[in-house]
């Protein structure tokens, strides 16, 4: 079973904010796969169903983004979902609008929601689908920028990136992270270095 987490803030006023792009992807997945995301569980809205013949849970945390780890931990524990089977969809201001990256462990991404999940799960070994929203202009703070709605011009690009993100998430449900990275990341799959075991010679 896969747990797919969309990042966003609850409430109508945040609905079309840049920071709520994860919620938008969850809504698209739910609509296209006939999964209703309306069951209330521990500060969360969830929906259970099938995607490519695999069991999935769609999650829209109802905490604010910096506390997302609370709801993810509860749902993952309640349904006994392994950390490696969690996929999160997040906005990324370091990427241009329309760009997409799929990350895994050892990510250098600086994001309060991801940090909250890592603290709660005590692991960073979950897939991170990073959706580019662009950077703020020099005279605007990051918080103000992310809490703004997409502009009319941006909405034209938004349709394409939402469709691309949906495809990446569906692929992650049934295929390896490396296969998805090779398809969607320009640089291909990230090599995760294995810990080197130091051999100790015993003198006899």
Give the topology.
Layout: E1 2-6, H1 21-32, E2 39-40, E3 44-51, E4 54-61, H2 68-78, E5 86-92, E6 100-103, H3 112-121, E7 127-132, H4 142-146, H5 152-174, H6 177-184
Parallel strand pairs: 1-4, 1-5, 5-7
Antiparallel strand pairs: 2-3, 3-4, 6-7
Helix pairs in contact: 1-5, 2-3
What does this structure look like?
The longest helix has 23 residues, at 152-174. This protein has a 7-stranded mixed sheet, with helices on both faces. The chain contains 6 helices and 7 strands, in the order E-H-E-E-E-H-E-E-H-E-H-H-H. A hairpin with a 3-residue loop joins strand 2 (39-40) and strand 3. The model is unreliable at 193-200 (pLDDT under 50). The radius of gyration is 18 Å and the shape is globular. It is 34% helix and 20% strand. The protein has 204 residues and is an alpha/beta fold. It has helices spanning 21-32, 68-78, 112-121, 142-146, 152-174, 177-184, and strands at 2-6, 39-40, 44-51, 54-61, 86-92, 100-103, 127-132.
Order of helices and strands: EHEEEHEEHEHHH
Major sheet: 7 strands, mixed
How helix-rich are the residues, as a percent range? 25-40%
Sheet/helix structural class: alpha/beta
| Major beta sheet, strand line-up | 2-3-4-1-5-7-6
The coarse silhouette is globular
Instruction: Output the number of helix runs.
Output: 6
**For the residues shown, what is the average pLDDT?**
90
- Gap between N and C termini, in Å? 51 Å
């Amino acid at each position: 079973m896969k747990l797919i987490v969309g990042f966003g803030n609850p409430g109508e006023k945040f609905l079309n904010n840049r920071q709520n792009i994860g919620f938008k992807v969850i809504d698209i997945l739910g609509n296209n796969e006939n999964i209703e995301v309306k069951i209330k569980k521990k500060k969360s809205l969830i929906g259970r169903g099938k995607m490519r013949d695999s069991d999935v849970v769609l999650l829209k945390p109802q905490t604010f983004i910096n506390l997302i780890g609370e709801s993810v931990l509860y749902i993952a524990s309640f349904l006994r979902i392994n950390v490696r089977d969690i996929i999160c969809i997040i906005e990324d201001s370091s990427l241009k609008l329309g760009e997409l990256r799929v990350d895994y462990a050892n990510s250098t991404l600086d994001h309060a929601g991801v940090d909250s999940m890592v603290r709660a799960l005590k692991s960073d070994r979950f897939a991170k689908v990073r959706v580019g929203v662009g950077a703020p202009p020099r005279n605007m703070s990051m918080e103000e920028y992310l809490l703004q709605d997409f502009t009319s011009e941006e909405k034209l690009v938004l349709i394409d990136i939402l469709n691309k993100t949906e495809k990446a998430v569906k692929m992650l449900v049934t295929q390896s992270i490396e296969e998805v990275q090779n398809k969607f990341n320009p640089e291909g799959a990230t090599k995760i270095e294995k810990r080197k075991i130091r051999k100790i010679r015993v003198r006899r």
